[in-house]
Write the structure tokens for this entry.
Amino acid sequence: MTYERQTDFGTPEALSDTFVTLTIDGREVTVPAGTSVMRAAAECGGAIPKLCATDNVKAFGSCRLCLVEIEGRKGTPASCTTPAEQGMEVSTQTPRLEKLRRGVMELYISDHPLDCLTCSANNDCELQDQAAAVGLRDVRYGYEGADHLGTQTDTSNPYFDFDPSKCIVCSRCVRACDEVQGTLALTIDGRGFASMVSAGQQGDDFLSSECVSCGACVQACPTATLQEKSVKAIGKPERAVVTTCAYCGVGCTFRAEMRGEQLVRMVPWKDGKANRGHSCVKGRFAWGYANHRDRITKPMIRDKIDEPWREVSWDEALTFTASRLNAIKTQYGARALGGITSSRCTNEETFLVQKLVRAGFGSNNVDTCARVCHSPTGYGLKTTFGTSAGTQDFDSVMQADVILVIGANPTDAHPVFASRMKRRLRQGAKLIVIDPRRIDLVRSPHIEAAHHLALQPGTNVAVLTAMAHVIVTEGLADEVFVRERCDWQEFEEWARFVAEERHSPEVLEAVTRVPAGEMRAAARLYATGGNGAIYYGLGVTEHSQGSSTVMAIANLAMATGNVGRRGVGVNPLRGQNNVQGACDMGSSPHELSGYRHISDGDTRALFEADWGVTLDEEPGLRIPNMLDAALDGSFRALYVQGEDILQSDPNTHHVAAGLAAMECVIVHDLFLNETANYAHVFLPGSTFLEKDGTFTNAERRIQLVRKVMEPANGMGDWEVTQALANAMGLQWHYTHPAQIMDEIARLTPSFAGVSFERLEAEGSLQWPVNAQFPDGAPVMHVDGFASGKGKFVVTDYVPTDEKTGPRYPLLLTTGRILSQYNVGAQTRRTENVVWHEEDVLEIHPSDAENRGLKSGDWVRLASRTGETTLRADVTDRVAPGVVYTTFHHPATQANVVTTEYSDWATNCPEYKVTAVQVMASNGPSEWQESYASWSEKSRRIVPAEPAE
Amino acid sequence: MDADRLIYMANQIARNFEVRGKQGAIAATADHIDKFWDPRMKAAAYAALEQGHAGLSTIAQGALEMLRRGHTPAPQSLATTFNAVDEAGHSDAG
């Protein structure tokens, strides 16, 4: 599409079943009751001049430009704050209004720089537009006298500037920060002429303030006061393409605003149903990695991993790879080969990788990053509900009365959804947080958790069982719901189990360290506070009882009747953007797309007929099993698309040993990541900006990814996989990802009604999309569970085998931070490093004092599997006995410390509980130094010889 | 495959099914291993069983013996109940 600003209706949409009809400038318009006159005018094609109004924040009535006249009423009310009424007759353009508006505009312009031609917002400025709209021709006051034109520009933020000389103090930025983002970092400082937008306290600039750089203020600004540096550097965009973000599982949609082949900025798309026009610092600004100097765009090969890389042609790389893979298959059998699909790649690309493994390699050794994040969600929710996808859409949170957040840190990991949740909390919903750390949600502006259960890491099941004990023994269960919707006998068995005295909060307090009174109060609130919605993350799943915890959560929701309608539910917050899609596409070693087991003959026959091959009927290896099998010689070749298992998976030494034992490791990625240090083939990847496809977010929402620029490496990832398949002798002839989606739809019942054509027309679809749900299903289990009856499962608390002791007396838990994403491969190559240039270790003051540590000191973090060093951050955000770090930086490699312990059902690693010791250190560990040296050696590249 | 690691995994599965009682837990453990383990993992576990691996729990041992005899139990929970070829109801997205 050519570049046009997104439609702005001036005030938010009113939601009402009652409608009113009014007349605006002689035109009749019908709108929901509560709609402003301004919005009603915009909906019938009129445009009342405005400056302080924009439709993602509440009306403010400050600029006095949107005045109208209403028949039978005195004065000239502001149309933004005046609700439309039945029979109202409105005039938006009269001589009186023209004069008033022109007078208002004169005042604005008398204190505004007249540098339009050199201004970065030239021709894309609402002030400029409105000056034209009101017919401003002169400023009677002149330009002498006091003004703000000499004020300094704040350039501290890496992505946008704040130039107060251009500010009209409309407060749109302040209101966007308050209402949309919920950080409340901005304010109007001073009064009258001295009024000025201010970030934080006196002396703060944007960077040092509480600002989280979500970009809402920049988007809201009607002038060039808050402006993207990229627009200043490049100029006004000339076209816009709507696409889907490649970061977290929220799946925000953006307009990629382009100038030629150059991306000028990413602006959240207001029609996007996942993000509703909001964004975070990653999706909005952190896309510079796409053109980073580290990007590899030429294929490379080497015989051994201690040799330098050789740049080669695509033909040579693919022939080399296919020949190695075929040789290994011939010598060791098909089960010696496997692949890992990427949750950062599209559904179509993921589908092709698993197809290559199954139809080309001939094995079921395919897995995906869900193994190390939400695989217990799959197991746990399927066991209880029959299907494990998140039960709600994101909008549902606005109808929740009690929000229970367990093992998730949405403000850092799912910030756009967190803003929606915070909006609901500011409206009065109650909050329960179950987390060993005092995450930001526990106490932030206008939000305070009713209960923060700061449990001992590893005791989730005990806490949830104790809460269930309270609900059952105090008669708080929703018996009507359970009798109607669940298996009553199983409920009774579960209720007897949790009601045992050994499961009371008082008895379990010794294990969980949560005061019994708090636990009881939290349980009562969840059970009786109205709509109860549970949101959880990897603090639930990444434990030895991850699957049991998910089942315990589902038990609580069913017991209290909090499933099957809006405002309730069980909602896993997915880590990566397409982790849901990767799983849907058959990335697990035991099942084909649509969750059909590989042992089912009818399902295999369907795929065999379509693909023209015979499929292995036995489940394949999961990622950790692949590494184990590599060490015993039965697994020899691995194709890894868009994942960095060396950095992300637990027990780095073990991962490295497994990779080093393989004969052919193929890394298909944007950068020479840590896994590539052990690879023989590097196939350059493409960014989400460079290809077409679809992502499926945590709401099961399938959305289009659109190519906005040509791939720097010459091929989309789906084309690379196809080229490799054909080099191995397969005959694939896809010319566009839409054809791959057609194949997915043909073979996958839950995608039967999905096509690029429909997605193009409808924006998004939430699966299942089939004969039963032709338009998809926003909320699951509305008329009953997928399995018929909800299944209560007794979840016995089994303590982890990872124990603290004299050598390792502290418990380490790991997580993420707002500005970085996963292993940091993308975000470390952006200006986001300003906020997080290294991983640090959070340690409680008492533990720090015992060790003589202060913030900023180097510390050695050691477990039984390995050790690393990093700087300390002394904070009471963590409880005594608990330390915390992130895993975004390879220089730290936090996973050198984590262990091989994993969830009993799925092998999801127990990242959240590692017994460690912390002590003072004077610099990097021996391992860090040797790894840095190895890494540097492994990344040597011999350029291709120029053609004669 | 490292027998100790596999036996640890089998025991861990068995321990979490223990609340079902011995026979129920044996069937559930066998069902789980049958549906989710690669053939070489199963073979290595059977080998450890035959060699009388000392670390095997009673339930895990019962499950491996059941599978080695060629008896694969019917699905013991919804976790091991998968969609039929034309079904869309179940999912286990991780």
Summary: Residues 314-332 of chain A form the longest helix (19 residues). Residues 19-133 of chain A form a domain with the Ubiquitin-like (UB roll) fold (CATH 3.10.20.740). Chain A has five domains: 19-133, 160-291, 300-373+582-766, 375-572, 810-937.
